[in-house]
Amino acid sequence: MKTLIVYASKHGCAKQAAEKLGEAMEKDAAVLDVRNVTRIDLDDYEKVIIGGSIRAGKIQGQIKSFAQKFMNQLLAKKIGLFICHMESDPEKAMQELTANFPQPLVDHATAKGLFGGEFDMDKMNFIERFIIRKVAHVTESVSNINEENIEKFIALMKDSE
Ligand SMILES: Cc1cc2nc3c(=O)[nH]c(=O)nc-3n(C[C@H](O)[C@H](O)[C@H](O)COP(=O)(O)O)c2cc1C
After folding, report:
1. Domain carrying residue 134
2. Residue of 22, 138, 17 whose CA lies nearest to 88
3. Which of the four pLDDT bands, split at 50, 70 and 90, describes residue 159?
Protein backbone atom coordinates (compact mmCIF):
# COMPACT_ATOMS: atom_id res chain seq x y z
CA MET A 1 0.00 0.00 0.00
CA LYS A 2 1.58 3.25 -1.07
CA THR A 3 1.72 6.11 1.42
CA LEU A 4 2.10 9.82 0.75
CA ILE A 5 3.41 12.02 3.55
CA VAL A 6 3.03 15.77 3.00
CA TYR A 7 4.54 18.12 5.57
CA ALA A 8 5.43 21.73 6.27
CA SER A 9 8.14 22.68 8.73
CA LYS A 10 9.90 25.88 9.65
CA HIS A 11 12.77 24.72 11.85
CA GLY A 12 12.82 21.02 11.00
CA CYS A 13 10.70 19.38 13.68
CA ALA A 14 7.76 18.39 11.46
CA LYS A 15 10.23 17.50 8.69
CA GLN A 16 12.05 15.05 10.96
CA ALA A 17 8.75 13.57 12.11
CA ALA A 18 7.61 13.15 8.50
CA GLU A 19 10.87 11.44 7.60
CA LYS A 20 10.56 9.14 10.59
CA LEU A 21 7.03 8.21 9.52
CA GLY A 22 8.32 7.61 6.00
CA GLU A 23 10.94 5.18 7.26
CA ALA A 24 8.45 3.40 9.51
CA MET A 25 5.84 2.94 6.82
CA GLU A 26 6.48 0.66 3.89
CA LYS A 27 9.34 1.03 1.38
CA ASP A 28 7.38 3.00 -1.17
CA ALA A 29 6.31 5.87 1.07
CA ALA A 30 6.83 9.28 -0.54
CA VAL A 31 7.76 12.13 1.82
CA LEU A 32 7.15 15.56 0.31
CA ASP A 33 7.57 19.12 1.52
CA VAL A 34 4.21 20.73 0.70
CA ARG A 35 6.11 23.54 -1.10
CA ASN A 36 7.27 20.97 -3.66
CA VAL A 37 3.78 19.59 -4.28
CA THR A 38 2.86 21.21 -7.57
CA ARG A 39 1.21 18.44 -9.54
CA ILE A 40 0.28 15.30 -7.72
CA ASP A 41 -1.92 12.32 -8.55
CA LEU A 42 -3.46 11.07 -5.32
CA ASP A 43 -4.77 8.00 -7.16
CA ASP A 44 -1.25 6.61 -6.69
CA TYR A 45 -1.69 6.46 -2.91
CA GLU A 46 -3.94 4.51 -0.57
CA LYS A 47 -2.80 6.31 2.59
CA VAL A 48 -2.03 9.99 3.05
CA ILE A 49 -0.42 11.60 6.10
CA ILE A 50 -0.52 15.38 6.41
CA GLY A 51 1.30 17.39 9.06
CA GLY A 52 2.85 20.68 10.00
CA SER A 53 3.77 22.83 12.95
CA ILE A 54 1.73 25.30 14.97
CA ARG A 55 2.68 28.96 15.28
CA ALA A 56 0.38 31.37 17.09
CA GLY A 57 -2.30 28.68 16.97
CA LYS A 58 -2.07 28.13 13.22
CA ILE A 59 -0.60 25.48 10.96
CA GLN A 60 1.22 26.47 7.76
CA GLY A 61 -1.21 27.91 5.20
CA GLN A 62 0.04 25.58 2.48
CA ILE A 63 -0.97 22.57 4.57
CA LYS A 64 -4.44 24.06 5.07
CA SER A 65 -4.72 24.70 1.33
CA PHE A 66 -3.56 21.18 0.45
CA ALA A 67 -6.11 19.60 2.80
CA GLN A 68 -8.90 21.82 1.43
CA LYS A 69 -8.00 21.38 -2.20
CA PHE A 70 -7.88 17.58 -2.10
CA MET A 71 -10.47 16.98 0.61
CA ASN A 72 -12.93 14.96 -1.48
CA GLN A 73 -10.22 12.60 -2.71
CA LEU A 74 -8.66 12.40 0.76
CA LEU A 75 -11.96 11.30 2.28
CA ALA A 76 -11.72 8.10 0.24
CA LYS A 77 -8.30 7.18 1.73
CA LYS A 78 -6.70 6.17 5.01
CA ILE A 79 -5.69 9.47 6.55
CA GLY A 80 -3.29 10.50 9.31
CA LEU A 81 -3.00 14.08 10.56
CA PHE A 82 -0.24 15.34 12.82
CA ILE A 83 1.12 18.51 14.33
CA CYS A 84 4.34 19.57 16.00
CA HIS A 85 3.49 21.91 18.86
CA MET A 86 4.69 23.10 22.27
CA GLU A 87 1.27 23.22 23.91
CA SER A 88 1.72 20.91 26.90
CA ASP A 89 -1.98 20.34 27.66
CA PRO A 90 -3.04 17.41 25.41
CA GLU A 91 -6.63 18.66 25.19
CA LYS A 92 -5.54 22.10 24.03
CA ALA A 93 -3.01 20.56 21.65
CA MET A 94 -5.77 18.39 20.17
CA GLN A 95 -7.85 21.55 19.72
CA GLU A 96 -4.91 23.06 17.83
CA LEU A 97 -4.92 20.03 15.55
CA THR A 98 -8.66 19.86 14.96
CA ALA A 99 -8.97 23.62 14.38
CA ASN A 100 -6.34 23.50 11.63
CA PHE A 101 -7.74 20.80 9.36
CA PRO A 102 -11.16 20.65 7.68
CA GLN A 103 -13.66 19.07 10.08
CA PRO A 104 -14.68 16.21 7.71
CA LEU A 105 -11.03 15.21 7.40
CA VAL A 106 -10.55 15.32 11.18
CA ASP A 107 -13.61 13.07 11.61
CA HIS A 108 -12.37 10.71 8.92
CA ALA A 109 -8.74 10.46 10.11
CA THR A 110 -7.52 7.07 11.35
CA ALA A 111 -4.72 8.70 13.36
CA LYS A 112 -4.38 12.18 14.86
CA GLY A 113 -0.85 12.74 16.13
CA LEU A 114 0.31 15.20 18.76
CA PHE A 115 4.04 14.90 18.27
CA GLY A 116 5.25 17.58 20.68
CA GLY A 117 7.95 19.91 19.44
CA GLU A 118 11.07 21.93 20.03
CA PHE A 119 12.09 25.47 20.78
CA ASP A 120 15.41 25.79 18.99
CA MET A 121 16.77 29.22 19.92
CA ASP A 122 19.60 28.98 17.36
CA LYS A 123 17.16 28.57 14.48
CA MET A 124 14.75 31.32 15.60
CA ASN A 125 14.99 34.84 14.30
CA PHE A 126 15.00 37.83 16.66
CA ILE A 127 11.22 38.25 16.65
CA GLU A 128 10.56 34.56 17.27
CA ARG A 129 13.02 34.52 20.17
CA PHE A 130 11.37 37.63 21.61
CA ILE A 131 7.88 36.05 21.38
CA ILE A 132 9.01 32.79 22.93
CA ARG A 133 10.74 34.62 25.80
CA LYS A 134 7.68 36.80 26.45
CA VAL A 135 4.87 34.30 25.89
CA ALA A 136 6.35 30.92 26.84
CA HIS A 137 9.00 32.32 29.24
CA VAL A 138 11.57 30.06 27.61
CA THR A 139 15.12 31.31 27.17
CA GLU A 140 17.01 28.15 26.18
CA SER A 141 16.48 25.51 23.54
CA VAL A 142 14.23 22.70 24.66
CA SER A 143 13.05 19.49 22.98
CA ASN A 144 9.73 17.90 23.88
CA ILE A 145 9.22 15.39 21.10
CA ASN A 146 6.60 12.82 22.09
CA GLU A 147 8.14 9.61 20.74
CA GLU A 148 5.37 7.53 22.30
CA ASN A 149 2.69 9.40 20.35
CA ILE A 150 4.71 9.03 17.15
CA GLU A 151 4.93 5.25 17.70
CA LYS A 152 1.18 5.02 18.42
CA PHE A 153 0.46 7.00 15.25
CA ILE A 154 2.66 4.67 13.19
CA ALA A 155 0.93 1.61 14.66
CA LEU A 156 -2.50 3.01 13.81
CA MET A 157 -1.50 3.86 10.26
CA LYS A 158 0.02 0.43 9.74
CA ASP A 159 -2.98 -1.32 11.32
CA SER A 160 -5.29 0.48 8.96
CA GLU A 161 -3.91 -1.44 5.97
C1 LIG B 1 7.06 32.09 17.19
C2 LIG B 1 6.52 30.73 17.62
C3 LIG B 1 5.18 30.60 17.93
C4 LIG B 1 4.67 29.35 18.33
N5 LIG B 1 3.34 29.23 18.62
C6 LIG B 1 2.87 28.02 19.07
C7 LIG B 1 1.49 27.88 19.38
O8 LIG B 1 0.67 28.78 19.26
N9 LIG B 1 1.08 26.67 19.87
C10 LIG B 1 1.94 25.60 20.02
O11 LIG B 1 1.50 24.54 20.46
N12 LIG B 1 3.24 25.71 19.67
C13 LIG B 1 3.72 26.89 19.19
N14 LIG B 1 5.04 27.01 18.86
C15 LIG B 1 5.93 25.83 18.95
C16 LIG B 1 6.17 25.17 17.59
O17 LIG B 1 5.01 24.51 17.15
C18 LIG B 1 7.35 24.20 17.76
O19 LIG B 1 8.51 24.99 17.92
C20 LIG B 1 7.52 23.21 16.65
O21 LIG B 1 8.44 22.23 17.06
C22 LIG B 1 7.98 23.85 15.35
O23 LIG B 1 8.06 22.87 14.35
P24 LIG B 1 8.84 23.13 12.97
O25 LIG B 1 10.31 23.20 13.30
O26 LIG B 1 8.55 21.92 12.14
O27 LIG B 1 8.31 24.36 12.36
C28 LIG B 1 5.55 28.23 18.43
C29 LIG B 1 6.91 28.39 18.09
C30 LIG B 1 7.41 29.62 17.70
C31 LIG B 1 8.86 29.76 17.34
Report:
1. 3-159
2. 138
3. confident
